[in-house]
Design a protein that fits this description.
The complex is a heterodimer of chains A (156) and B (144). Chain A has 156 residues and is of the alpha+beta class. Chain A is built from 4 helices and 8 strands; from the N terminus they run H-H-E-E-E-E-H-E-E-E-E-H. Helices cover 26% and strands 35% of the residues of chain A. Chain A has a single domain, classed as Hotdog Thioesterase (Thiol Ester Dehydrase, Chain A), CATH 3.10.129.10. In chain A, a hairpin with a 2-residue loop joins strand 1 and strand 2. Chain B is an alpha+beta fold. Helix content of chain B is 28%, strand content 34%. In chain B, a hairpin with a 3-residue loop joins strand 4 and strand 5. The longest helix of chain B has 20 residues. The chains are: A alpha+beta (156), B alpha+beta (144). Strand 5 of chain A pairs antiparallel with strand 3 of chain B.
Chain lengths: 156, 144
Amino acid sequence: MNDAIRLNRVTRFIDTLKQAQELGLSVIEAREGSLTLCLPYSDRIIGNPDTGVIHGGAITTLMDTASGSVILCALDDFELCPTLDLRVDYMRPAEPHKPVYARAETYKVTRNIIFTRCEAYQKGGETIANCVGTFMRIGKEASPKHYRDLITGGGE
Amino acid sequence: MTDPEIYRYTRESGDFSRLLQSIPYATFIGLECDQFGDDLIFRLPKKEENLGNPILPAIHGGVIGGFMELSAAIYLMMSQDSMRMPRIVDFSLDYLRAGLNRETYAECRLTRQGNRVANVMVTAWQKSRSQPIATARAHFLMED
């Protein structure tokens, strides 16, 4: 598997997540075991109307999506892995009117569990948030073949 | 958020609609809140746009997190008599069951209130309160 395939798989996967579409998440870069996504700024996800700062929930969704999708960059076969837990540390509010990026990596893959970490940041800025997560491997048979084929592009 | 008039209205009437309308992210995910006596129950009505996994289908885990996080902040603000939205420091979320495409509920508990930091527990459920879909802990910084 090469990075172009990884990027295509993650893009197709994210296309099937309605909330990711609603937020306008896009894939910036996919490599072996690492992935960068982008969350564009929008007035609709503001948490504090006085400052225009987006709500932490949108950052949580960005980081959950990046952490869950980076698994596609670490495994050869597509497996849907449910989130067991997420821990998010908020360093500073995101600057309004700028996109937020999330770079996730799998730092340990075992037979049952995948451990991820993720950093949310803005261009030229400091870290917005850090996140560690664990995902459970329930096997590729747990998701229907038509969905696996959709994501992998049918044996790509 | 800091509009004292909206805050006073919410406190006196127990009607959270104006407060929630003033927070775009609350409208974005569709968060609602009902008051029963002193207790607050937060609700996330079924919404297609909130879905993640299309196979089950299930609510996106991030939306469940955002729902619980915003619920905790509003709960804390109301229990503090503070007009400021508290700032979140960290958030730890355990997913216990898939959040299916149906209405979700959350309630919060203040575990510890210090001078500068508050610890809030959040439980979210769907069909039965005895079968939570997620539990979370959050720390907030109280600003004066």
